[in-house]
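User: Watch each token:
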Amino acid sequence: MIDITKDGGVWTVTLNRPDKANSLTRAMLEDLSQAAEAAAREAARVFVLTGSGKVFSAGADLDEARAGLATDPVWERLSGAIAALPCLTIAALNGTLAGGAMGMALACDLRLAVPGAKFFYPVMKLGFLPQPSDPGRLATLIGPARAKMILMAGARIEAAEALAWGLIDRICPPETLMTEVAALATDATAASAAHVAGIKAMIPD
């Protein structure tokens, strides 16, 4: 349910469970974490997260969430592994981003989304706490009040508003999303892994 391709220093990791809106099982989260950790070991220069179908991810698989996945530390392991990558990380959001899946996108350096994407994190409604790092990363991007709108008021944000807030960095038509990602990856791909890591280390989170 996770596909990984490697091409010239670019790792593309695709959530591939479109029949379930790419909802995340524990096994998928483990595979994603291991992919990010492997990309660090193997000196990837660009790491891309995307999904198959029309939804990036609906968050946790509901059956597994009820069985304890919603509060499993694997979510924090995943977002931490992505945040620690010494390369350019890009979330290519092919559709809606919801719930705990927000964490992996927040941990990326750049977020691109299609026009129809929506963004929401219904932890207040569902009775769970967000993953520990997510509120801080969210507030850094969009400010404390807007973070509270999403996490506490249950706001559902459309792509245009997400762009205006700074939650995403660019809106791309679905047919050109990955072309745009490739263009953004060009300079890092042509550089050495050490150079990519050196520039990233100079930019504060």
Notes: The chain has one domain: 2-202. The mean pLDDT is 97. The first helix runs from residue 26 to 41.
